[in-house]
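Bump. Still looking for Molybdate transport system ATP-binding protein structure tokens.
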Amino acid sequence: MLKIQVSKQLASFSFQFNHDIDCQGITAILGVSGSGKSTLINLINGLIKPDQGYIKLNNTSLVDCDKNLFIDPEKRQIGTVFQDALLFPHYKVIKNLTYGANNFNSSKFDEIVNVLNIHSLLNRYPAMLSGGEKQRVAIGRALLANPLLLLMDEPLSALDMPRKKELLTYIDKLANDLNIPIIYVTHNINEVKKIANNVAILDQGKLIEFGKVEHVLQSDYLKEWL
Ligand SMILES: Nc1ncnc2c1ncn2[C@@H]1O[C@H](COP(=O)(O)OP(=O)(O)OP(=O)(O)O)[C@@H](O)[C@H]1O
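Sorry for the wait, here they are.
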């Protein structure tokens, strides 16, 4: 369980989020541009410090403003995949995957390589990969660090439609085959329908709705948005 009760002021933008997120399956964070989706992701992974409140992952405090506690991003056991796959251009895929990952065994490596279907890419440089292949490698690298939770901030936005469809299938497999909980940021309702179990809707830095996808997609807020 991810327990979040935070507020953050970024210039004139006020952000608040008070809700628990079940660490199971895929939880989508949906909202228009500027609603605060990336702010939420960066509060969870530690790239932003809240002004007030706390975040706990499976009962471990990641940040607690009252106690002046702040766990550094690299110690949170949380993987983040951003819009653009940030790979080292001068390293082959295999080195990009294993860079900085100290605690993994070869069966874990094989499992991740299989689920993401990147075996044939291991000896290529990033410049020799398509956008979707790069994102699969970036996801693989995040998974090799053994995260308890995977955050994905609009991972499809740089891809064309066929690659989007392809990568969505892989993301779905991660949650099901590897059993890794995922928080998935998007402004695309179709992506939510395809892969998410639960969805949170943000608007102007506030949580508007949270619940099962079937339920939330019926909300009046989304009827106006569609
Ligand atoms: N460091 C900052 N300083 C000032 N304002 C910021 C800062 N970071 C974000 N903001 C503002 O906070 C608001 C929310 O930004 P955020 O990136 O969280 O939105 P988003 O929903 O992820 O948007 P998008 O879908 O376009 O990525 C925006 O108005 C943005 O300009």
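The domain at 2-225 is CATH 3.40.50.300 (Rossmann fold).

Edit: fixed formatting.
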